[in-house]
Amino acid sequence: MKTSPKLSCHIRPARAADLANLLALENLSFTGERLNERRMRHWINASNGILLVANATASPGQLLGYCLAFTRKNSTVVRAYSLAIAPKARGMGLGGKLLERAAKKGKQQGCTHIRLEVAKGNISAIALYKKLHYVSFASIPDYYEDGQDAWRMHNVL
Ligand SMILES: CC(C)(COP(=O)(O)OP(=O)(O)OC[C@H]1O[C@@H](n2cnc3c(N)ncnc32)[C@H](O)[C@@H]1OP(=O)(O)O)[C@@H](O)C(=O)NCCC(=O)NCCS
């Protein structure tokens, strides 16, 4: 029988003091198209931003993951823009938890759907989104800077 290791964590909105840890996590998680310091700071403060972080309960200074989503005026779609889990915390359910929490916040703000893009080669992320019942509805060639194609996926909130 497959058992998942337990991970006790606390999910909360990001704050200015998280900036350095968020950037470190971004560097560990992505090779290209990373959020830079200016953009990350913007999203920590943006009124339409939903930037959530997860801390290990036992070690509150330690950032295990983050999810960034945002809403737009006159739109009922919340866009999940980025999701990253520290390598040592992957496979323990945290990515799913963070994304679902961000989706819930979008719903509380009046959104009816959530949308995201994912590289067609990102097997683990696609598996995660499918597990959460996201559906691909468009294929976007050459979506990323490095030429990778993307799926556009969405889900009902
Ligand atoms: C993609 C990512 C966010 C997944 O986070 P995670 O916390 O490891 O995912 P979870 O533990 O919540 O996984 C939930 C489900 O996703 C799928 N999944 C996650 N990692 C997987 C992997 N390596 N291989 C296959 N399926 C995987 C499984 O269906 C899993 O459910 P299961 O454990 O019951 O089998 C994480 O691997 C990551 O940060 N990757 C680098 C950054 C990135 O690619 N972000 C996404 C950009 S679109």
Structural descriptors:
alpha+beta, single chain, about 30% helix, 7-stranded mixed β-sheet, about 160 residues, binds coenzyme A, 4 helices, Aminopeptidase
Layout of SSEs?
Elements: E1 9-13, H1 19-29, H2 37-45, E2 49-56, E3 59-70, E4 77-85, H3 94-108, E5 113-119, H4 123-131, E6 135-140, E7 150-156
Helix pairs in contact: 1-2
Bound molecules: coenzyme A.
Residues 29, 83-85, 90-96, 118, 122-125, 127-128, 131 line the site of coenzyme A.
Could you explain the architecture of this structure?
By secondary structure, the protein is α+β, with helices and mostly antiparallel strands. The protein has a single domain, classed as 3-Layer(aba) Sandwich (Aminopeptidase). The chain has four helices and seven strands. It has a seven-stranded mixed beta sheet, sandwiched between helices. Helix 1 (19-29) packs across helix 2. The longest helix is centred in the middle third of the chain and has 15 residues, at 94-108. The N and C termini lie far apart (32 Å). The mean pLDDT is 94. Bound molecules: coenzyme A.
